[in-house]
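Run log, item B.
One chain of 327 residues. Sequence copied directly from the ordering sheet:
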Amino acid sequence: MSSIAELVEFINAGSKFIIAGHKEPDGDCVGSQLALRSALLRLGKEAIVCSAGPYKRTELRNYIEQFESIPQEPDGTESGTKAIIVDCSGKERTGELHEILDKYPCAIIDHHAAASHPPSTPQTPVYVDAAAPSCTLLIYRLMTALGLQLTEEEATLLLFGLCTDTGFFRHMTEKNAEAFDATAEMIRRGASPKNVFGIINGGKSLNSRILVGNILSRTKAYFDGRLLISSETLEESNIFGFESRDSDSLNQMLLSIKDVEAVVVIRQESVENCTVSLRSIDNINVAKIAASFNGGGHKNAAGLTMKGDISFVKQKMIESFSEFFIQ
């Protein structure tokens, strides 16, 4: 993997940049993209942010208009354009942007421990730190290496991403002192933890609470209560829509139950497909399970997509978790 110095060289040698993130972006992805764009613009570069969406999280609503779904760029490498992918392992995770990004020299900035990261070269550096609690922390390091002090807007975007991926610091440990040092600098530069908390957790609809109640009511326990599995039906997806989903609150409540070590929430997105959210505490590596179904994520937070209905997917999840719970 590349050092941050190689990433700085990649940026200094370019004049135009496309900054892409993964499909179904979250606050860490969006915060990373927008803060990096701001930094590049301040360096005199041209930069745009792109995402294939969809934007399923209510806290992203005020940022959506800043993104392009398809970059309007001419002639590939002849245009002098470079691409930077943040918060994911490679081009394939960007969805419909994949083929467009193939035209350009492409750097990657990621904090996921994925086996699918491409080889790193000086022309296409891959900067990965799986120990970092958020991608925005890597963007903070990069901006510091570029000699930039944070603006208030950049500090807020970086704190937004950091708080998204750490559950507002709930998932951080004694190993994360650097992140708290960075947080202090973000606050000194004008980021308000109170305001960021409001962005992430405020503005929820009554329907979001009804939906959480429905999902909680059908939760079942397996392996002596160590695994909880619940689901959102296709009918609920159609009635309540993406904006009523509040996965963080739901997972927080389920993981707080005594003896629970892992949580699975299956959502029937269409007649043929389900998405699966996986969360765990401590030693259960849900990223390993997600990867076995071509998904991805972190040790304690991951996701995947699978063909089939809720009943089929539930059985697959029970079988997958049995390796952790049956000795």
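Observations after the first pass:
- The mean pLDDT is 91.
- Residues 4-200 form a domain with the inorganic pyrophosphatase (n-terminal core) fold (CATH 3.90.1640.10).
Flagged for discussion on Thursday.
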